Amino acid sequence: MTQAWTRRSSGSMERKVAPQLLAGERILWQGAPIQGLMLRPLDLALIPFSLFWAGMALFWNIKTWDAAIGSVSRLGGLVMLIVGVYAVIGRFLLDGYMRRHLSYVVTDRRAIIARTGPWPTRLSLDLARLPHLELKEMPDGTGTILFGAPRPVRGNHAAGLGVWQPTLDPTPQFIGIPDADAVFALIQSRTGD
């Protein structure tokens, strides 16, 4: 039955993870986030806000440069414009880039989140000791599995970035995976062992 959960692509992920496996540990599932533009329900509010912010920043820059106002106002306007461009476009580009470098593995003991690229990391979560497990599923069957309660935005700047860009959220998660309900059920079945 565990073989039914295994997703094998080219076997390259399995070769990368194999040296990290504990003695007797078996891979039950492996996958990666969906690619391309990934919109979340929260983006219904974030996109209009970011367009408003970028528009106001552009207006501010045009007015300060035309009126020859001091350099501090110009610099502040440029910073606001950069933040606006990131919120409108940059966050989607960076999120897509980071998702291309993410891979996920579920073994009979752990969930592993590995990121390659310029900032490689590997996070290992013991399935028997997960504090919280949550599934956020989309109508198309893709979804995100959170390993831990979402962190509040106030007082935690990293959590605030996670609102804008899921790949920067400090809560460990399998972001945008296909057939998320089946993977969630697999993980849940292993947490009671």
UniProtKB/TrEMBL annotation:
Source taxon at top rank: Bacteria
Chain ranges passing through the membrane: 44-62, 74-94
Keyword annotations from UniProtKB, A to Z: Membrane, Transmembrane, Transmembrane helix
Name of the featured protein: PH domain-containing protein
Organism: Methylobacterium ajmalii
Lineage: Bacteria, Pseudomonadati, Pseudomonadota, Alphaproteobacteria, Hyphomicrobiales
